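As practice, study what follows.
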Amino acid sequence: MSRLLRLLCLLFLAALGRAAAAVPDHDIVVYGGTSAGVTAAVAAARAGQRVVLIEPGRHIGGLTSGGLGATDIGRKEAIGGLAREFYRRVKQHYATPAAWRYERPEAFRSQHHDPAEDVMFFFEPHVAEQVFHDLLRDAGVSLVTGERLDLKAGVVTRDGAITTLVTESGRRFSGRVFIDATYEGDVMAGAGVAYRVGREAKAEFGETRNGNQPHLLRGRAVPSPHDFRRAVDPYRRPGDPASGLVFGVQEGGAGTEGAGDDRVQAYCYRLCLTNVPENRVPFAAPADYDPAKYELVARYLNASTMLPEYPQGGPIEHPVLGNNLLQQPPGVIMPNRKSDSNNKDPVGFNLVAGNYAYPDGDYATRERIIREHISWQQGLIWFLATDPRVPAPYREPLQTWGLAKDEFTDTGHWPHQLYVREARRMTGTYVMTERDCDATRSAPHSIGLGAYAMDSHNVRRYVDEHGHVRTEGTIGLGVKQPYPIPYPAITPRREQCTNLLVPVCLSATHVAYGSIRMEPVFMILGHSAGIAAAIALEQDAAVQDIDLATLRTRLLAEHQVLDRLTPRKSPP
Protein backbone atom coordinates (compact mmCIF):
# COMPACT_ATOMS: atom_id res chain seq x y z
CA MET A 1 0.00 0.00 0.00
CA SER A 2 1.39 3.35 -0.95
CA ARG A 3 2.22 5.96 1.66
CA LEU A 4 -0.50 8.24 0.30
CA LEU A 5 -3.14 5.52 0.51
CA ARG A 6 -2.12 4.67 4.06
CA LEU A 7 -2.37 8.34 5.02
CA LEU A 8 -5.85 8.58 3.48
CA CYS A 9 -6.96 5.48 5.39
CA LEU A 10 -5.66 6.89 8.66
CA LEU A 11 -7.44 10.19 8.06
CA PHE A 12 -10.65 8.35 7.22
CA LEU A 13 -10.46 6.24 10.40
CA ALA A 14 -9.74 9.31 12.48
CA ALA A 15 -12.77 11.04 11.00
CA LEU A 16 -14.92 8.03 11.82
CA GLY A 17 -13.61 8.11 15.40
CA ARG A 18 -14.45 11.79 15.76
CA ALA A 19 -17.94 11.22 14.37
CA ALA A 20 -18.52 8.33 16.77
CA ALA A 21 -17.25 10.39 19.68
CA ALA A 22 -19.68 13.17 18.76
CA VAL A 23 -22.67 10.84 19.17
CA PRO A 24 -23.86 10.98 22.81
CA ASP A 25 -23.79 7.76 24.79
CA HIS A 26 -27.43 8.22 25.71
CA ASP A 27 -30.41 10.23 24.57
CA ILE A 28 -31.44 11.14 28.11
CA VAL A 29 -29.29 11.19 31.25
CA VAL A 30 -31.14 11.17 34.58
CA TYR A 31 -29.09 11.96 37.66
CA GLY A 32 -30.55 10.95 41.02
CA GLY A 33 -32.27 7.63 41.71
CA THR A 34 -35.07 9.16 43.77
CA SER A 35 -38.65 8.17 43.12
CA ALA A 36 -38.78 11.01 40.58
CA GLY A 37 -35.58 9.80 38.93
CA VAL A 38 -37.01 6.32 38.50
CA THR A 39 -40.28 7.50 36.96
CA ALA A 40 -38.47 9.98 34.70
CA ALA A 41 -36.17 7.27 33.41
CA VAL A 42 -38.96 4.73 32.95
CA ALA A 43 -41.23 7.20 31.13
CA ALA A 44 -38.45 8.27 28.75
CA ALA A 45 -37.39 4.68 28.05
CA ARG A 46 -40.95 3.63 27.34
CA ALA A 47 -41.07 6.52 24.86
CA GLY A 48 -38.26 4.84 22.91
CA GLN A 49 -35.26 6.80 24.20
CA ARG A 50 -31.88 5.45 25.31
CA VAL A 51 -31.83 6.29 29.01
CA VAL A 52 -29.27 5.98 31.79
CA LEU A 53 -30.18 6.55 35.44
CA ILE A 54 -27.21 7.49 37.62
CA GLU A 55 -27.61 7.12 41.38
CA PRO A 56 -24.73 8.41 43.53
CA GLY A 57 -25.53 5.94 46.32
CA ARG A 58 -26.25 2.22 46.32
CA HIS A 59 -30.04 2.31 46.58
CA ILE A 60 -32.84 3.68 44.44
CA GLY A 61 -36.19 5.16 45.41
CA GLY A 62 -35.06 7.97 47.69
CA LEU A 63 -37.43 8.49 50.62
CA THR A 64 -40.10 6.19 49.20
CA SER A 65 -37.77 3.22 49.70
CA GLY A 66 -35.85 4.94 52.50
CA GLY A 67 -38.41 4.72 55.28
CA LEU A 68 -41.30 6.93 54.15
CA GLY A 69 -43.73 4.11 53.58
CA ALA A 70 -46.73 5.94 55.06
CA THR A 71 -47.43 8.01 51.97
CA ASP A 72 -48.39 11.67 52.35
CA ILE A 73 -51.22 11.91 49.84
CA GLY A 74 -53.64 14.82 50.05
CA ARG A 75 -56.14 13.39 47.57
CA LYS A 76 -55.85 9.86 46.20
CA GLU A 77 -57.63 10.72 42.99
CA ALA A 78 -54.96 13.33 42.17
CA ILE A 79 -52.36 10.58 41.73
CA GLY A 80 -52.10 9.15 38.21
CA GLY A 81 -49.60 7.90 35.67
CA LEU A 82 -46.49 6.05 36.77
CA ALA A 83 -47.03 7.12 40.36
CA ARG A 84 -50.33 5.27 40.46
CA GLU A 85 -48.75 2.32 38.65
CA PHE A 86 -46.16 2.16 41.43
CA TYR A 87 -48.87 1.97 44.11
CA ARG A 88 -50.76 -0.62 42.06
CA ARG A 89 -47.65 -2.78 41.91
CA VAL A 90 -47.29 -2.42 45.68
CA LYS A 91 -50.85 -3.67 46.09
CA GLN A 92 -50.10 -6.60 43.78
CA HIS A 93 -47.13 -7.52 45.96
CA TYR A 94 -49.27 -7.64 49.10
CA ALA A 95 -51.95 -9.65 47.30
CA THR A 96 -49.68 -12.70 47.64
CA PRO A 97 -49.81 -14.65 50.95
CA ALA A 98 -46.01 -14.86 51.07
CA ALA A 99 -45.83 -11.07 51.56
CA TRP A 100 -47.38 -11.37 55.03
CA ARG A 101 -44.85 -12.86 57.45
CA TYR A 102 -45.82 -11.24 60.75
CA GLU A 103 -49.57 -10.63 60.51
CA ARG A 104 -52.60 -11.70 58.56
CA PRO A 105 -53.53 -9.38 55.69
CA GLU A 106 -57.10 -9.06 56.92
CA ALA A 107 -55.77 -7.80 60.27
CA PHE A 108 -53.89 -4.90 58.70
CA ARG A 109 -55.46 -1.52 59.40
CA SER A 110 -53.98 1.81 58.46
CA GLN A 111 -54.84 5.31 57.33
CA HIS A 112 -55.68 5.56 53.60
CA HIS A 113 -55.77 1.74 53.32
CA ASP A 114 -58.87 0.42 51.58
CA PRO A 115 -58.64 -3.31 50.76
CA ALA A 116 -61.15 -2.79 47.93
CA GLU A 117 -58.88 -0.39 46.02
CA ASP A 118 -56.37 -1.46 43.36
CA VAL A 119 -53.62 0.62 45.04
CA MET A 120 -51.83 0.50 48.38
CA PHE A 121 -50.19 3.56 49.88
CA PHE A 122 -48.58 2.08 53.01
CA PHE A 123 -45.76 -0.39 52.45
CA GLU A 124 -42.41 -1.69 53.69
CA PRO A 125 -39.20 -0.02 52.43
CA HIS A 126 -37.71 -3.12 50.81
CA VAL A 127 -40.94 -3.70 48.90
CA ALA A 128 -40.81 -0.18 47.44
CA GLU A 129 -37.22 -0.59 46.29
CA GLN A 130 -37.99 -3.89 44.59
CA VAL A 131 -40.94 -2.33 42.75
CA PHE A 132 -38.67 0.46 41.50
CA HIS A 133 -36.11 -2.08 40.27
CA ASP A 134 -38.87 -3.98 38.48
CA LEU A 135 -40.03 -0.80 36.73
CA LEU A 136 -36.51 0.02 35.54
CA ARG A 137 -35.85 -3.53 34.37
CA ASP A 138 -39.12 -3.80 32.48
CA ALA A 139 -38.47 -0.47 30.71
CA GLY A 140 -34.89 -1.35 29.76
CA VAL A 141 -33.28 1.54 31.66
CA SER A 142 -29.52 1.36 32.17
CA LEU A 143 -28.92 1.80 35.92
CA VAL A 144 -25.57 2.95 37.30
CA THR A 145 -25.09 3.17 41.08
CA GLY A 146 -22.26 4.41 43.26
CA GLU A 147 -21.21 7.23 40.93
CA ARG A 148 -21.25 10.70 42.51
CA LEU A 149 -21.21 13.82 40.40
CA ASP A 150 -18.00 15.84 40.55
CA LEU A 151 -19.43 18.91 42.27
CA LYS A 152 -16.66 21.23 41.06
CA ALA A 153 -16.37 20.34 37.38
CA GLY A 154 -18.84 17.54 36.74
CA VAL A 155 -21.39 19.44 34.66
CA VAL A 156 -19.91 20.15 31.23
CA THR A 157 -21.79 22.71 29.14
CA ARG A 158 -21.46 24.20 25.67
CA ASP A 159 -23.53 27.00 24.13
CA GLY A 160 -26.02 27.04 27.00
CA ALA A 161 -26.62 23.29 27.08
CA ILE A 162 -25.24 20.40 29.11
CA THR A 163 -23.19 17.91 27.11
CA THR A 164 -21.73 15.60 29.76
CA LEU A 165 -21.86 14.66 33.42
CA VAL A 166 -18.55 13.59 34.99
CA THR A 167 -18.44 11.63 38.22
CA GLU A 168 -15.74 11.60 40.88
CA SER A 169 -14.36 8.35 39.48
CA GLY A 170 -13.86 10.00 36.08
CA ARG A 171 -16.73 8.29 34.29
CA ARG A 172 -18.39 10.48 31.67
CA PHE A 173 -22.06 10.31 30.71
CA SER A 174 -22.95 12.27 27.61
CA GLY A 175 -26.50 12.89 26.47
CA ARG A 176 -28.85 15.22 24.65
CA VAL A 177 -31.32 16.01 27.45
CA PHE A 178 -30.59 15.86 31.18
CA ILE A 179 -32.90 15.48 34.15
CA ASP A 180 -31.80 16.48 37.66
CA ALA A 181 -33.90 14.30 39.97
CA THR A 182 -31.83 14.78 43.13
CA TYR A 183 -33.16 16.24 46.36
CA GLU A 184 -30.20 18.63 46.36
CA GLY A 185 -30.25 20.00 42.78
CA ASP A 186 -26.55 19.34 42.14
CA VAL A 187 -26.77 19.17 38.33
CA MET A 188 -28.90 22.31 38.27
CA ALA A 189 -26.36 24.19 40.39
CA GLY A 190 -23.42 22.85 38.38
CA ALA A 191 -25.02 24.07 35.16
CA GLY A 192 -25.23 27.62 36.51
CA VAL A 193 -29.02 27.64 36.85
CA ALA A 194 -30.35 30.18 39.36
CA TYR A 195 -31.79 28.85 42.60
CA ARG A 196 -32.77 29.80 46.13
CA VAL A 197 -32.05 28.34 49.57
CA GLY A 198 -34.11 29.33 52.59
CA ARG A 199 -37.25 31.40 52.99
CA GLU A 200 -38.39 34.36 50.95
CA ALA A 201 -39.55 37.46 52.77
CA LYS A 202 -43.29 37.42 53.31
CA ALA A 203 -43.72 40.49 51.11
CA GLU A 204 -41.66 39.31 48.12
CA PHE A 205 -44.49 37.27 46.57
CA GLY A 206 -47.35 38.54 48.74
CA GLU A 207 -47.57 35.31 50.74
CA THR A 208 -49.10 35.00 54.20
CA ARG A 209 -46.91 32.21 55.55
CA ASN A 210 -43.41 32.89 54.23
CA GLY A 211 -40.42 34.31 56.06
CA ASN A 212 -39.86 34.38 59.81
CA GLN A 213 -43.14 33.64 61.62
CA PRO A 214 -42.48 33.51 65.39
CA HIS A 215 -46.14 34.01 66.33
CA LEU A 216 -47.76 31.82 63.68
CA LEU A 217 -48.60 28.91 65.99
CA ARG A 218 -49.86 30.96 68.91
CA GLY A 219 -53.47 31.68 69.73
CA ARG A 220 -55.01 28.82 67.74
CA ALA A 221 -58.30 27.34 68.89
CA VAL A 222 -56.69 23.91 68.63
CA PRO A 223 -53.18 23.91 70.12
CA SER A 224 -50.45 23.04 67.66
CA PRO A 225 -48.42 19.96 68.56
CA HIS A 226 -45.43 21.65 66.90
CA ASP A 227 -45.03 24.38 69.51
CA PHE A 228 -44.08 24.19 73.16
CA ARG A 229 -47.34 24.24 75.12
CA ARG A 230 -45.53 24.00 78.45
CA ALA A 231 -43.02 26.45 79.90
CA VAL A 232 -39.48 25.15 79.37
CA ASP A 233 -36.40 26.99 80.60
CA PRO A 234 -33.74 27.33 77.86
CA TYR A 235 -30.61 27.87 79.99
CA ARG A 236 -28.02 25.34 81.10
CA ARG A 237 -28.47 26.57 84.64
CA PRO A 238 -32.21 27.28 84.82
CA GLY A 239 -32.93 30.97 85.11
CA ASP A 240 -29.35 32.00 84.32
CA PRO A 241 -28.87 33.42 80.81
CA ALA A 242 -25.13 33.75 81.46
CA SER A 243 -24.83 29.95 81.60
CA GLY A 244 -25.69 29.64 77.89
CA LEU A 245 -28.41 27.78 76.03
CA VAL A 246 -29.05 24.06 76.24
CA PHE A 247 -28.41 22.00 73.11
CA GLY A 248 -31.11 22.49 70.49
CA VAL A 249 -31.99 26.14 71.17
CA GLN A 250 -30.64 28.86 68.88
CA GLU A 251 -29.58 32.43 69.60
CA GLY A 252 -31.39 35.44 68.18
CA GLY A 253 -34.77 35.71 69.85
CA ALA A 254 -38.00 36.06 67.91
CA GLY A 255 -36.54 38.17 65.09
CA THR A 256 -38.35 40.35 62.57
CA GLU A 257 -41.81 39.17 61.57
CA GLY A 258 -41.99 38.18 57.90
CA ALA A 259 -38.29 38.63 57.16
CA GLY A 260 -36.59 36.31 54.69
CA ASP A 261 -33.58 34.22 55.68
CA ASP A 262 -31.39 31.32 54.58
CA ARG A 263 -32.73 28.88 57.18
CA VAL A 264 -33.92 25.44 56.02
CA GLN A 265 -36.71 23.35 57.50
CA ALA A 266 -35.46 20.49 59.64
CA TYR A 267 -34.43 17.02 58.41
CA CYS A 268 -34.63 13.60 60.05
CA TYR A 269 -34.67 9.91 59.20
CA ARG A 270 -37.97 8.08 58.79
CA LEU A 271 -37.36 4.92 60.82
CA CYS A 272 -38.86 1.51 60.18
CA LEU A 273 -39.43 0.07 63.66
CA THR A 274 -41.17 -3.09 64.81
CA ASN A 275 -42.32 -4.76 68.01
CA VAL A 276 -42.24 -8.28 66.56
CA PRO A 277 -39.68 -10.05 68.79
CA GLU A 278 -38.21 -12.30 66.10
CA ASN A 279 -37.76 -9.38 63.69
CA ARG A 280 -36.52 -6.78 66.18
CA VAL A 281 -32.98 -5.41 66.48
CA PRO A 282 -32.45 -3.82 69.91
CA PHE A 283 -31.72 -0.12 70.08
CA ALA A 284 -28.14 0.90 70.83
CA ALA A 285 -26.51 4.13 71.90
CA PRO A 286 -24.32 5.89 69.31
CA ALA A 287 -20.58 5.89 69.95
CA ASP A 288 -20.64 9.62 70.79
CA TYR A 289 -23.73 9.44 73.03
CA ASP A 290 -23.99 12.41 75.39
CA PRO A 291 -27.09 12.60 77.58
CA ALA A 292 -26.56 16.35 78.01
CA LYS A 293 -27.71 16.83 74.40
CA TYR A 294 -31.18 15.70 75.48
CA GLU A 295 -31.67 18.07 78.41
CA LEU A 296 -34.33 19.92 76.44
CA VAL A 297 -36.23 16.65 75.94
CA ALA A 298 -36.15 15.85 79.65
CA ARG A 299 -37.35 19.32 80.62
CA TYR A 300 -40.16 19.23 78.09
CA LEU A 301 -41.45 15.81 79.14
CA ASN A 302 -41.40 16.81 82.81
CA ALA A 303 -42.79 20.34 82.44
CA SER A 304 -46.08 21.04 84.22
CA THR A 305 -46.62 24.80 83.86
CA MET A 306 -48.73 25.68 80.83
CA LEU A 307 -47.91 28.64 78.63
CA PRO A 308 -50.59 31.37 78.75
CA GLU A 309 -52.07 30.71 75.31
CA TYR A 310 -52.38 26.97 76.02
CA PRO A 311 -54.35 26.84 79.29
CA GLN A 312 -55.72 23.38 78.54
CA GLY A 313 -52.31 21.99 77.71
CA GLY A 314 -53.14 18.63 76.21
CA PRO A 315 -51.06 15.46 76.15
CA ILE A 316 -47.47 15.41 74.92
CA GLU A 317 -46.91 13.11 71.97
CA HIS A 318 -44.39 10.34 72.40
CA PRO A 319 -41.23 11.65 70.66
CA VAL A 320 -40.78 8.34 68.81
CA LEU A 321 -44.14 6.57 68.76
CA GLY A 322 -46.26 9.72 68.47
CA ASN A 323 -49.92 9.77 69.42
CA ASN A 324 -50.41 6.08 68.65
CA LEU A 325 -49.68 4.96 72.22
CA LEU A 326 -53.29 3.91 72.75
CA GLN A 327 -53.23 1.61 69.74
CA GLN A 328 -52.61 -2.08 70.30
CA PRO A 329 -49.87 -2.61 69.39
CA PRO A 330 -48.86 1.06 69.57
CA GLY A 331 -47.45 2.89 66.58
CA VAL A 332 -48.05 0.15 63.99
CA ILE A 333 -49.17 1.64 60.69
CA MET A 334 -47.30 -0.50 58.16
CA PRO A 335 -47.69 -4.08 56.92
CA ASN A 336 -46.07 -6.80 59.00
CA ARG A 337 -46.38 -4.80 62.22
CA LYS A 338 -43.90 -2.08 61.35
CA SER A 339 -43.91 1.67 61.81
CA ASP A 340 -42.91 4.62 59.71
CA SER A 341 -41.64 6.76 62.59
CA ASN A 342 -41.46 10.44 61.73
CA ASN A 343 -40.55 13.48 63.77
CA LYS A 344 -42.86 14.39 66.64
CA ASP A 345 -42.62 18.08 67.44
CA PRO A 346 -41.59 20.24 69.23
CA VAL A 347 -38.75 17.95 70.37
CA GLY A 348 -38.24 14.78 68.37
CA PHE A 349 -36.30 13.24 65.51
CA ASN A 350 -35.70 16.54 63.71
CA LEU A 351 -32.24 17.96 64.34
CA VAL A 352 -33.54 21.51 64.18
CA ALA A 353 -31.02 24.00 62.69
CA GLY A 354 -28.52 21.19 62.09
CA ASN A 355 -28.95 21.28 58.32
CA TYR A 356 -28.41 24.88 57.25
CA ALA A 357 -25.15 24.08 55.46
CA TYR A 358 -26.50 20.98 53.69
CA PRO A 359 -28.01 22.35 50.42
CA ASP A 360 -24.85 24.10 49.20
CA GLY A 361 -22.43 21.86 51.07
CA ASP A 362 -19.75 19.71 49.51
CA TYR A 363 -19.82 15.96 50.11
CA ALA A 364 -17.69 16.20 53.26
CA THR A 365 -20.06 18.79 54.73
CA ARG A 366 -23.13 16.75 53.88
CA GLU A 367 -21.61 13.56 55.27
CA ARG A 368 -20.84 15.37 58.54
CA ILE A 369 -24.44 16.59 58.73
CA ILE A 370 -25.72 13.09 57.97
CA ARG A 371 -23.58 11.62 60.78
CA GLU A 372 -24.88 14.27 63.18
CA HIS A 373 -28.48 13.45 62.30
CA ILE A 374 -27.91 9.72 62.80
CA SER A 375 -26.20 10.36 66.14
CA TRP A 376 -29.00 12.67 67.29
CA GLN A 377 -31.77 10.19 66.50
CA GLN A 378 -29.99 7.11 67.84
CA GLY A 379 -29.12 9.02 70.98
CA LEU A 380 -32.66 10.34 71.39
CA ILE A 381 -34.11 6.82 71.27
CA TRP A 382 -31.49 5.55 73.72
CA PHE A 383 -32.15 8.47 76.05
CA LEU A 384 -35.91 7.91 75.96
CA ALA A 385 -35.55 4.18 76.52
CA THR A 386 -33.00 4.26 79.35
CA ASP A 387 -32.69 7.61 81.14
CA PRO A 388 -34.46 7.76 84.53
CA ARG A 389 -35.42 11.41 83.89
CA VAL A 390 -37.84 10.19 81.21
CA PRO A 391 -41.31 9.56 82.70
CA ALA A 392 -42.35 5.92 82.63
CA PRO A 393 -45.22 6.40 80.10
CA TYR A 394 -42.59 7.53 77.56
CA ARG A 395 -39.76 5.21 78.59
CA GLU A 396 -41.50 1.87 79.03
CA PRO A 397 -43.21 1.51 75.61
CA LEU A 398 -39.82 1.62 73.86
CA GLN A 399 -38.65 -1.50 75.69
CA THR A 400 -40.61 -3.67 73.24
CA TRP A 401 -39.51 -1.87 70.06
CA GLY A 402 -36.47 -2.00 67.82
CA LEU A 403 -35.24 -1.56 64.27
CA ALA A 404 -36.72 -3.99 61.74
CA LYS A 405 -34.22 -6.78 61.11
CA ASP A 406 -35.41 -7.41 57.55
CA GLU A 407 -35.06 -3.75 56.45
CA PHE A 408 -31.90 -1.88 55.39
CA THR A 409 -29.82 -4.99 55.86
CA ASP A 410 -26.64 -3.48 54.39
CA THR A 411 -26.76 -0.25 56.45
CA GLY A 412 -27.18 -1.66 59.93
CA HIS A 413 -31.00 -1.57 59.62
CA TRP A 414 -30.83 2.23 59.51
CA PRO A 415 -32.42 3.96 56.47
CA HIS A 416 -30.12 4.78 53.57
CA GLN A 417 -31.78 8.13 52.85
CA LEU A 418 -31.85 11.26 55.02
CA TYR A 419 -35.20 13.04 54.77
CA VAL A 420 -34.06 16.11 52.86
CA ARG A 421 -37.35 17.95 53.09
CA GLU A 422 -36.05 20.95 51.19
CA ALA A 423 -32.69 22.07 49.80
CA ARG A 424 -32.15 24.18 46.70
CA ARG A 425 -35.18 25.42 44.76
CA MET A 426 -34.75 26.52 41.16
CA THR A 427 -35.65 30.06 40.12
CA GLY A 428 -37.08 29.03 36.80
CA THR A 429 -39.39 30.15 34.05
CA TYR A 430 -42.39 30.11 36.42
CA VAL A 431 -42.16 30.43 40.22
CA MET A 432 -44.94 28.67 42.11
CA THR A 433 -46.20 30.51 45.18
CA GLU A 434 -48.84 30.23 47.87
CA ARG A 435 -51.31 31.67 45.36
CA ASP A 436 -50.97 28.57 43.17
CA CYS A 437 -51.60 26.25 46.10
CA ASP A 438 -54.57 28.12 47.54
CA ALA A 439 -56.29 28.39 44.12
CA THR A 440 -56.19 32.18 43.87
CA ARG A 441 -54.37 31.75 40.58
CA SER A 442 -54.18 28.82 38.21
CA ALA A 443 -51.14 28.23 36.05
CA PRO A 444 -51.61 26.86 32.51
CA HIS A 445 -49.82 23.84 31.02
CA SER A 446 -50.34 21.47 33.94
CA ILE A 447 -48.10 18.40 34.14
CA GLY A 448 -49.58 17.06 37.38
CA LEU A 449 -51.42 18.02 40.54
CA GLY A 450 -50.30 18.88 44.04
CA ALA A 451 -52.79 18.16 46.80
CA TYR A 452 -51.08 18.14 50.19
CA ALA A 453 -51.17 20.97 52.73
CA MET A 454 -48.48 23.64 52.60
CA ASP A 455 -46.26 21.92 55.14
CA SER A 456 -42.98 23.04 56.65
CA HIS A 457 -41.28 21.64 59.72
CA ASN A 458 -39.63 23.91 62.24
CA VAL A 459 -36.50 25.78 61.21
CA ARG A 460 -35.34 26.87 64.67
CA ARG A 461 -36.01 27.14 68.41
CA TYR A 462 -35.54 30.43 70.19
CA VAL A 463 -36.04 32.10 73.57
CA ASP A 464 -39.16 34.27 73.75
CA GLU A 465 -39.61 37.52 75.64
CA HIS A 466 -40.61 35.62 78.80
CA GLY A 467 -37.57 33.35 78.82
CA HIS A 468 -39.29 30.25 77.46
CA VAL A 469 -38.30 27.98 74.57
CA ARG A 470 -40.45 28.39 71.45
CA THR A 471 -40.39 26.89 67.98
CA GLU A 472 -40.56 28.73 64.67
CA GLY A 473 -41.03 27.69 61.07
CA THR A 474 -43.88 25.20 61.12
CA ILE A 475 -46.54 25.71 58.46
CA GLY A 476 -49.65 23.57 58.18
CA LEU A 477 -51.90 25.40 55.78
CA GLY A 478 -54.43 23.15 54.06
CA VAL A 479 -55.38 23.43 50.39
CA LYS A 480 -59.01 23.43 49.30
CA GLN A 481 -58.47 21.33 46.21
CA PRO A 482 -55.67 19.81 44.13
CA TYR A 483 -53.92 22.44 42.05
CA PRO A 484 -51.96 22.28 38.77
CA ILE A 485 -48.19 22.33 38.65
CA PRO A 486 -47.18 23.95 35.33
CA TYR A 487 -44.50 22.68 32.97
CA PRO A 488 -42.51 25.97 33.14
CA ALA A 489 -41.94 25.30 36.86
CA ILE A 490 -39.53 22.45 36.00
CA THR A 491 -37.67 24.28 33.21
CA PRO A 492 -34.76 26.69 33.80
CA ARG A 493 -34.67 30.08 32.19
CA ARG A 494 -33.71 29.74 28.55
CA GLU A 495 -30.54 31.82 28.86
CA GLN A 496 -29.25 29.53 31.61
CA CYS A 497 -29.80 26.04 30.16
CA THR A 498 -31.83 24.68 27.25
CA ASN A 499 -31.69 20.93 27.84
CA LEU A 500 -32.27 20.44 31.56
CA LEU A 501 -35.44 19.51 33.45
CA VAL A 502 -35.73 19.73 37.26
CA PRO A 503 -38.74 17.85 38.65
CA VAL A 504 -37.65 17.75 42.32
CA CYS A 505 -35.84 21.03 43.08
CA LEU A 506 -38.38 22.79 40.93
CA SER A 507 -39.16 26.50 40.80
CA ALA A 508 -41.23 27.39 43.87
CA THR A 509 -41.16 29.50 46.98
CA HIS A 510 -40.56 27.91 50.36
CA VAL A 511 -44.28 27.94 51.14
CA ALA A 512 -45.42 26.40 47.85
CA TYR A 513 -42.63 23.82 47.96
CA GLY A 514 -43.96 22.69 51.32
CA SER A 515 -47.01 21.31 49.52
CA ILE A 516 -45.32 20.09 46.36
CA ARG A 517 -42.52 18.17 48.11
CA MET A 518 -44.46 14.92 48.61
CA GLU A 519 -43.18 11.67 47.13
CA PRO A 520 -46.26 10.92 44.95
CA VAL A 521 -45.93 14.40 43.42
CA PHE A 522 -42.24 13.86 42.75
CA MET A 523 -43.13 10.63 40.93
CA ILE A 524 -45.79 12.48 38.92
CA LEU A 525 -43.37 15.26 37.98
CA GLY A 526 -40.62 12.78 37.16
CA HIS A 527 -42.97 10.94 34.78
CA SER A 528 -43.93 14.20 33.08
CA ALA A 529 -40.28 15.28 32.84
CA GLY A 530 -39.39 12.01 31.14
CA ILE A 531 -42.07 12.48 28.50
CA ALA A 532 -41.12 16.14 28.00
CA ALA A 533 -37.49 15.14 27.48
CA ALA A 534 -38.52 12.59 24.88
CA ILE A 535 -40.63 15.19 23.05
CA ALA A 536 -37.71 17.64 23.08
CA LEU A 537 -35.62 15.04 21.27
CA GLU A 538 -38.39 14.12 18.82
CA GLN A 539 -38.94 17.78 17.96
CA ASP A 540 -35.25 18.72 18.12
CA ALA A 541 -36.23 21.57 20.43
CA ALA A 542 -35.03 23.22 23.61
CA VAL A 543 -36.99 22.01 26.61
CA GLN A 544 -38.56 25.48 26.83
CA ASP A 545 -39.84 25.22 23.24
CA ILE A 546 -41.57 21.84 23.05
CA ASP A 547 -45.16 21.78 21.85
CA LEU A 548 -47.18 21.84 25.05
CA ALA A 549 -50.35 20.56 23.39
CA THR A 550 -48.40 17.45 22.39
CA LEU A 551 -47.10 17.09 25.95
CA ARG A 552 -50.62 17.30 27.37
CA THR A 553 -51.97 14.75 24.91
CA ARG A 554 -49.16 12.31 25.70
CA LEU A 555 -49.52 12.72 29.46
CA LEU A 556 -53.27 12.19 29.36
CA ALA A 557 -52.74 9.08 27.25
CA GLU A 558 -50.47 7.80 30.04
CA HIS A 559 -53.16 8.48 32.66
CA GLN A 560 -51.64 11.53 34.30
CA VAL A 561 -54.21 13.63 36.18
CA LEU A 562 -53.77 17.21 34.97
CA ASP A 563 -56.94 19.17 35.70
CA ARG A 564 -58.43 20.47 38.92
CA LEU A 565 -60.67 18.14 40.89
CA THR A 566 -63.85 19.06 42.76
CA PRO A 567 -62.82 20.99 45.88
CA ARG A 568 -63.53 19.76 49.37
CA LYS A 569 -65.94 21.72 51.52
CA SER A 570 -63.06 22.78 53.78
CA PRO A 571 -59.30 22.27 53.63
CA PRO A 572 -57.82 19.44 55.75
